[in-house]
């Protein structure tokens, strides 16, 4: 994978940060941010050439997770985030204005794919 013109090893998961587009959580908002984990021992991070690319540290946190397979699309993330929300049954226990959708596999992997949705515990 190339990041800002510099070859870096691919990391997993690829994390999509998104918000529900409505109160029913029936689809994702139009804006989605994509994140990649960078190992802590990485030296010489590339310099972004645009303000749209940033590096940030994420504080330690606990998450509620639901795992599912297949080639995930928006509909799959929405279905699974709602199953996770319903299984928790306590919207006060997690941040309810956003969620993470994660993919662990190369597009070349055809079977036994791993996807997750995350809700951040309060």
Biggest beta sheet summary:
5 strands, antiparallel
Oligomer: single chain
The radius of gyration is: 16 Å
Unreliable runs: none
How much helix is in the residues?
10-25%
Order of H and E elements? EEEEEHEE
Q: How are strands sequenced across the largest beta sheet?
A: 4-3-6-7-5
Strand content: 15-25%
What is the molecular shape? Answer: globular
Structural class given helices, strands, pairing?
alpha+beta
Q: Compute the number of strand runs.
A: 7
- The mean pLDDT is 89
Distance between the termini: 34 Å
- Count of helical regions: 1
Give a verbal description of the structure.
The chain has 122 residues and is of the alpha+beta class. Helices cover 12% and strands 25% of the residues. The chain contains one helix and seven strands. It has a five-stranded antiparallel beta sheet, with helices on one face. A two-stranded antiparallel sheet has the order 1-2. 13% of the residues are buried. The mean pLDDT is 89.
Short description:
The protein is 12% helix and 25% strand. It has one helix at 74-88, and strands at 2-3, 6-7, 14-18, 33-36, 63-68, 99-103, 115-120. A five-stranded antiparallel sheet has the order 4-3-6-7-5, covered by helices on one side. A two-stranded antiparallel ribbon has the order 1-2.
Key features?
five-stranded antiparallel sheet; globular; two-stranded antiparallel sheet; alpha+beta; 1 helix; 122 residues
